[in-house]
Structures are given as structure tokens and as C-alpha cells.
Amino acid sequence: FCELARSGRVMTGDPPGHEDGWGLAFYRQGQLVVHKSGVSLLEETDRVRGILSAARTSPVLILHLRKSAWANTSCTRHAHPFYLGNSVFFHNGVVYDYQKLIPDIGLPGPPADARDTEVFFYHVMSQPAPELDRAFLDSVATIKQNHRFSALNCLFSDGVKLFAYRDYAKEPDYYSLYKACAENSWFISSEPLDDNLRWEMMAKEEFLAINPGDMAGRATGELG
Questions:
Q1: Which residues pair with 198 in a beta bridge?
Q2: Where are the beta strands (DSSP E) in the chain?
Q3: N or C terminus: fewer CB in 10 A for the chain?
């Protein structure tokens, strides 16, 4: 995972690396724990390894490497994930006209300096559907019908399930999302991480809801 910060896949014409920040989330005794930074993960590898060691018993673990689409936002404030209560949200892609989503968001809305992913998340959390997965799919339907985007690849959780979604309007080779299952654990990743696992590319518009409690195991996601 750490090596992807240096050599992870990028869009055509972009410089290599995902070094505009990192973030990870897990659950300790059912409560969300978030760590994130605006510094390259390559500069904080020891810190991240220490956090991951402490998260070994979490049923859900999600990690993100950021390659920013927005100037002057490589800071902890804009690093993923974004979260409210026990719900946490990671996104790979750009919603270009995200400002047009803001009027649909209930109060309190996102901060004034929010960019597309944070606005996307607040839009999800403002949906009337009580279930996080249904609220997410309702927001996705709105974006796909009325807005411009590059991709809507997302990993998110409510502390009970890990949700994964893949969708793109361009660069399908870059906006990839793979799934694998081994023993009692699920893995979702932008790129295959372990040659010993059998990775399968998620289809366009594929949505997964994984409940680690049903398999007495763990669900791990990586997005970047």
C-alpha cells in the first residue's frame, strides 16, 4: 500500500505518485477512528504503520492516498476521509460542478471551502433515506443525471458494513476498483495489492455492501 504513494497508477499525462495526503479510518469498539494528513505518506510511513498495528482488530479498515484535482488543497483539512457521526466517506474522481449540489444539502451544510468530495458526502447525508447505502445511491442518481463527473468510485462505511461503488465517465483503466476474498476477509482496492489473492475488477456501476459480521472476518478497502 505504501509503495502506491510513489508508483500508483495515474491518469494519462499526470506525473507519477499519489503524494497529496493520506487518510485512514477504522472502528474501535464500534466507534469511528480517523487519521489523516496533508503530507505524503512516504514521509510518514512509520506513523501509518503504528496506526495500522493498533487497528488490527477493527472489522472495517479503509485507507486513501490522495492525488488532488484542486490547486492549493494538499493539507490535512482536505485529505480524505470526511465523516459525520459514525459514517465515513472516501472518493476517487471529480464532480466538476459540485457547487450545484449545495442547494440540495440541508443545514448545517459543508464548510465554505469544501471541495467536491466533501460536498458529495454532505449531499449523501442529507438524503431522506435512513439507510446509508440507499442515501448514497440516491445521490449518485442525482449526480449522474444532472452533473458532470470523471468518476464516482467510493468506499464508505457506517461502522457495520463496508460499501464500495465503481462508476466512471472517462479513463476506465485509471478509475479501477478490484475486489478479492480470502478466508473470512474481503479486500477492495484501486490496484491489486497481493499476488496471492484472486483479484476481480468491479464492473461499471457495481455496488457492494459487505457485512464483516456475517463472516466473522474483516473488510479492508484502499482507494487512491
A1: none
A2: 22-28, 31-37, 60-65, 82-84, 87-92, 153-157, 162-166, 178-182, 185-189, 200-201, 206-210, 218-223
A3: N
Q: Which domains does the chain have, with CATH numbers?
A: 4-223 (3.60.20.10)
pTM of the prediction? 0.90
Helices marked H in 79-219: 116-125, 132-146
Contact 222, 190 (CB under 8 A): yes
Cell triple for 199:
483479484
For CA atoms 157, 162, 167, 170, give the dihedral sign.
positive
Cβ proximity of 118 and 92 under 8 Å = no
Q: Provide the 3-class DSSP secondary structure of residue 32.
A: strand
All cell numbers assigned to 207 = 455496488
Q: How far apart are CA 133 and CA 161, in angstroms?
A: 9
Strand partners, 208: 164
Residues 128, 134: Cα–Cα separation, whole Å: 9
Interatomic CA distance for residues 12 and 148, integer angstroms? 19
**String of DSSP letters for 164-176:** EEE-BSS-TTTS-
172 CB-near residues (< 8 Å, 6+ apart): 204
The three cell numbers locating residue 48? 501509518
Q: Which of 134, 199, 144, 200 is nearest to 167 (CA)?
A: 144
Would you state the pLDDT for residue 127? 96
Task: Dump pLDDT digits (tens) for 38-61.
Answer: 988 888 989 999 999 989 889 999
**Residue type (1 letter), 139:** S
> How far apart (Å, rounded) are the C-alpha atoms in residues 23 and 76?
9
Which residue is it, cell 488543497? 73
